[in-house]
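Sample intake sheet
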Amino acid sequence: MDEHFLFYVPPGQIDHARLQFTEDEAHHITKVLRKQPGDIVQATDGVGNTMDVRLIEVDKKKVAGEVIATYNTPAEPDRILAMGVIRQRERLEFAIEKAVELGVTKIVLVHSEHAGRMEIKSRRIDKTIIAAIKQSRRPWLPAWEERDSFFDVLAAYRESREVVMAHPDVEGTYEWKAEDTPMLLLVGPEGGFSPNEVEQAVASDIKIISLGQKRLRTETAVCAMLVLANLGR
C-alpha cells in the first residue's frame, strides 16, 4: 500500500464496505499511479475516517473498492478563519490551501469593506480544499462559506469562541489560549480592515494583535496567524 497518497471519497459514495471514487480520483488512480484490481490505497471520507481500500474495479470510467480497515480520528480543535477576499484567484486559492494545511476547521470568505464583491468559483474552492487535505493527510474536510461583512461573521461565530484580529501597528502582547480553545481568527483583505471594522472590534473587546512590523499580504498574514495559533505564542 502506498501511504504517500490519500484519496477523498464523499460520504454519499460509500455504501457500507463498498465505495466508488470520484472521476478526478479515478483518473489519478488509473492514469498516474496505474493501480490494478487487488491493489490497496488509502482514502478519507472527510468526516474523520481514514480507510484502507482494496480496489475491485479499475477502468477508465470507474474505480471502485471495498473497505478492509477503518481508522477514526477525533474531531479537530474548533478553529475558524475569516479572511477578506483576495481578488487575484491564484492568491486566494493559495491562502485557502495553506489555511487547510495549517489546521483550520472552517473558512469564511468575507466581502469586507476594503475587499468589495467578487464572484467566487465554488468548484475551484472545493477542489483546493480537497487537494489540501490530501496533501496534509487530514481526515477532516473543512467547510467554507461566504459572508458579506466581518460584522456578519461576528454575529454568527463569536459566541463561545476566542476572537483574534490581525492588524498592523498594534502595541502590547497577547497570550494565545490552549490548542483546544475554540477560536475565530480574523484576517483583513489587501486594503486591511476599515476604520469602521477596527472601531467595532475595539468596541466588542476583540483581541487585536500585530503580526510584525512589516505590512503583509493577506495570504502571508493567514499563514503567520495560523502558525502563531498552532504554536501558542
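Comment: The radius of gyration is 20 Å. The longest strand covers residues 49-58.
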